[in-house]
Amino acid sequence: MTQAEYVQQTLAGLDPSPDGGIDPALPLYATTFVVLDLETTGGAPDGGGITEIGAVKVRGGEELGVLATLVNPGQPIPPFITVLTGITEAMVVPAPPIEQVLPSLLEFLSDAVLVAHNAPYDVGFLKAACARHGYRWPNPRVLDTAALARRVLTRDEVPNRKLGTLAAYFRTRTQPSHRALDDAKATVDVLHALIGRLGGHRVETIGDAIEFAKAVTPTQRRKRHLAEGLPKAPGVYIFRAADDRPLYVGTSGDIATRVRSYFTAAEKRARISEMLAAAERVEAVECAHSLEAEVRELRLIAAHAPPYNRRSKFPERMLWLKLTDEHYPRLSVVRDLSPADQAYLGPFSSRRTAELAAAGFYDAVPLRQCTHRLSLRTVTPACALAELGRCPAPCEHRITPEEYDRRAAAPFRAATADDPQVVVDALLARIEALARDQRYEEAAVVRSRLVAVLRAAVRMQRLTALTGIAELAAARPAARGGWELALVRHGRLAGAGVSPPGVHPRPTLAAIRATAETVPPGHGPVPRATAEETERILSWLERPETRLVEMSSGWSSPVRGAARFRDLLAKAEAAASHQLSTERS
C-alpha cells in the first residue's frame, strides 16, 4: 500500500477558507470548542506516532463531552518519552491503532473550533494520520492558546507561555502532567481565562479571537475599529485620511469581511501598512452585484488616483497606434483619437508596447518609418532604409500612392479592423527564416513583435464588437436567488440591479432602464468608457451562466478576425515566458 505523502504547512484553520462551517461572527460565549491534546513518540508527523488522545468539548463554560483513549503508535516508544509521560509500551499494546480512533475523533470535532496549546504540533499529527489512512481532514477553525497568550499576557505577568506556566498563573483546576486528558482539561481553564482577557481588546467573536492570536502590527491592532459597522454586501470600500482624501479604493463581494482582512496577520504589504497608519475612516458604497462594484472601483480610482492604489489610476494615459492621413501614410503613436482617424490599433498601456507593435508592422509590410510629411510634387532624399530595401522610398516617388496603399497601408487597416493574415504570415516567415539561419535571438525579437500585434488586435476587436451596441441588457443568476441585471450602453455600464427571488425580472429591468445613464455614441473602440471597464463587462457577459436578454443590434466579430489566432498567440506568449524564465535562472 502506497503511503500518502504529507507535507506540514501553515496551521490548519488559519487558512483563508476553512471548511469547519463555523461563522467567524459567532460570539465566543456561543462557540463550541473542542480542546485537544496529543501525546506522541516524539518524531515528525508521518501518520503514526500518536500514543494518547484527550479531548474536551465545551461551550459557554459548560463541559459537553470528553473523548480520551490510549493509541497504539505502531512503533516503539523511546525511553525518554516513557519517563516524561509515564506511558509504556505495555500500556499501548492493547490500545486501538489511530485508524480505528480517527472516525470517532473526527465526529467529535465536527461543528466545533479546535483548540490546542501549540496547535501546529497537534494538528500536524492529525492531518498526517488522516492523509495516511484515507480520511478527509475537515479543516476546522483552530485557536492556539499559546499564540493567544503571547498577545494577551505580558512578560511581567508570565516568563513564558508554556502550558504548565499558564496553568500555574491562572490556578487551573487540573494541572498538566504530560497525559493527554489532564493537559486538555488544563488547557480548557487556560482558554476560559484568556477569553476573559479578550473583552478589553474588543475581541468578542471567534473570528476576531483567531485573528487576534496572529502576529499583527500595533497599527493594525490600533486601527481595527475602522472595520466595524460595515455592510456584509458587495460594493466598494474607500480608506480615507483625516482630511477625507481617498487613500485606497478596493472592491469585494463582502465589504465587511474584506476590510477586516486588512487588520490581520495575512496582510503583510508594506504600502498597505503605511496606508493604514494614515487612514482615519473607511467608507462603504454598496452595489447591486460584483460587476457594478468592479466598475465603480475603476471609476473611483481613475477619478481620485489614490496614492496606495497601483493599477487603473491613469486611464487617460492610454496610447494608440494610428495610420496618418497622408498621401503616403505612416504610423504614429498618439494619446487621443479624432473622428477623422479611420485606421488605428490599441489601446496600449505604454509607449514601449505601442512601438513594439509598430515594429511588427515594419517587419511585415513596407510602411515608411520617417516622420516627414511627404509631397507629391517635391522629392525628399531617401534614408538608409531605402538603400537596405526596407522601405519603398515614397520620398523619392519610387512608388505611387496607390501602390503604397495596396502594399503597406491596406494590410495595416485589414489587420486592425478585420483580418491580420497578411501581417501574421509575413512575421511567421521572418521568424522561420531567422531560426533557419540560427539567428535565434533575432527570431525571438520578431516573435515578441508578433505577440504585441496580435494581442492588441484581439483586444481591440473584442472591444469594438461590444462598444458598437447602443444598448445591451443581460442577466445572471444571483447567489441567493433572483437575477443580477446589467444594462450596458456602448461598452459602459449604464445601470445595474438585482431582481428579488420569485419575482419576474422584467419590472426590475424596466426600472433600471428608466434610471440608467444616458450614453451617446462616440468614435473608437472605447468611446464612452475605459478599456478596463469594458473588459470587465465583457468578462461578466461571457460567463456561461450569463444570459443576454435584449440587444439593440447584433453582437458579432469579424469571421476572419484576429481572434482566430488565439492559439498562435498563446503559444508565442508561452514561448516568450519560457525564454524569460530560462534567462533569469
TrEMBL record:
InterPro entries cross-referenced by the UniProt entry: DnaQ, GIY-YIG_endonuc, GIY-YIG_endonuc_sf, GIY-YIG_UvrC_Cho, Ribonucl_H, RNaseH-like_sf, RNaseH_sf, UvrABC_protein_C
Gene Ontology terms, MF aspect: exonuclease activity
Keywords tagged on the record: Exonuclease, Hydrolase, Nuclease
Pfam short name (any one): GIY-YIG
Domain GIY-YIG: 232-310
PANTHER family: UVRABC SYSTEM PROTEIN C, UVRC/OXIDOREDUCTASE
NCBIfam families noted in UniProt: dnaq, PRK07883.1-2, PRK07883.1-3, PRK07883.1-5
Protein's UniProt name: DEDD exonuclease domain-containing protein
Taxonomic source organism: Micromonospora globbae
Phylogenetic classification of the source organism: Bacteria, Bacillati, Actinomycetota, Actinomycetes, Micromonosporales
